[in-house]
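pasting for the record
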Amino acid sequence: MKKAKVALLALVSTSILSTAAVAAHFKDSDHAIDYRQSAFSLMAYNFGDMGAMLKGKKPFDAEVFALRADNVAAISKLPLEGFIAGSDKGDTGALAKVWSEKADFDAQMKTLQKNAAALAIASSSEDRKVLQQAFMKVAKSCKGCHDVYKKD
């Protein structure tokens, strides 16, 4: 199971990286904003479903939890490419700091990706404490970035 999960993550990562060059050519900044907002929405849905399971708001299903964790890990790689120059204007919740502090923003996004990948690996554990800890690292990554780079 663990080898299959690693292979799946490698396949998804390769697929995402091979399409990055194509996806980076947005028609305009509005398309880049839509792209990243869509990715964040998908990530939030998957993350929220895991949170509901961990909080007991819905029955815990290890298979669904693992699927959601894998999805978050894959999706976490998508939004960063949508933060192109000029996409600070328009219907966006991103603050101008994203572009003026781009190196820090990029580093925080990379930390999110690392923590999301760790959550996907941890999702094979039957130990709820392990799942909770990995989940909270991702939550902390999200909150840390939102607190600094996203409008309320």
